[in-house]
Design brief:
The protein is an alpha/beta fold. Helices cover 48% and strands 11% of the residues. Helix 2 runs antiparallel to helix 5 and helix 4 crosses helix 5. The longest helix has 21 residues. The N terminus is likely disordered.
Length: 245
């Protein structure tokens, strides 16, 4: 009995002396609707590019793919009509090029979410590393960040071109971790404005899956997913990280 009590006391003392959870190291942020304003440019460009090639897709179907790899989205709709193979691949690339051209034009004067840049500055000042992940391709992602002058805030930027499978697969988050030399998912939070963003965060096992309703999805829609916290926008993110992480 004395041995049991001694062991229990020792265990209790060790737990009491154990440090609190380590602070996070990396914040992974979606771009469209999370960092930049979303006025429906993506679904409009996608619908136009698909319809030109007579590939049917409804607005509701496209909405379900918000946050996904744009090339992956196009392949999904193409392969409903065309047998996978060289012809389908060529059609996917043609539609993707058209989509990117339209999206680049639409985003020529893209504006940030109110408070987004200040949030980036605050988080950088907190010693956090920042990364982007996006369903956009590399060229469009780089163009957006250059336009805003935001390259300086990010340790790494990951696009859907960097992975085989986009969201809800967790691979963009893992690529960001690898590039930032962060080897523990518990040192990471991921932030986005779509159900697929939250699904990817949960599939990755990161410490926080944070949703914002400043973009494609409403608060009500985000609440149907598993999440750590929901916020109106990234403007509230630094304060949340200080209090909860």
């Amino acid at each position: 009995m004395k041995i049991v009590r001694s062991f229990a006391l020792t265990a209790a003392l060790l737990l009491a002396a154990a440090p609190a959870s380590a602070a996070i190291k990396l914040v992974v942020l979606d771009i469209g609707g999370t960092l930049i304003q979303d006025h429906g440019e993506v679904p409009t460009a996608m619908m136009n590019a698909l319809s030109k090639r007579k590939i049917p897709a409804t607005a509701a179907e496209i909405a379900d793919w918000r946050g996904a790899s744009k090339r992956g989205m196009i392949r999904h709709f193409v392969e409903r009509q065309v047998k996978p193979g060289k012809d389908a691949n060529a059609l996917v690339e043609s539609i993707n090029a058209d989509f990117n051209a339209q999206a680049e034009k639409a985003y020529t004067n893209v504006q940030p979410i109110a408070g987004a840049e200040d949030a980036l500055k605050q988080m950088q000042g907190m010693g956090l590393m920042l990364a982007t992940t996006t369903g956009f391709g590399r060229e469009l992602e780089d163009r957006i960040l250059r336009h805003l002058g935001w390259e300086k805030y990010f340790t790494v930027t990951i696009s859907s071109d960097d992975v085989v499978d986009g969201r809800p697969a967790p691979y963009m988050i893992y690529h960001a971790m690898e590039a930032a030399h962060v080897d523990n998912v518990k040192d990471v939070v991921a932030v986005g404005d779509t159900p697929l963003d939250l699904q990817a965060a949960n599939n990755s096992g990161v410490r926080g899956a944070i949703g914002v309703w400043s973009g494609a999805a409403t608060e009500e829609k985000l609440r149907k997913e598993k999440y750590s916290q929901l916020l109106p926008s990234v403007a509230s993110l630094p304060e949340l990280l200080k209090k909860s992480y």
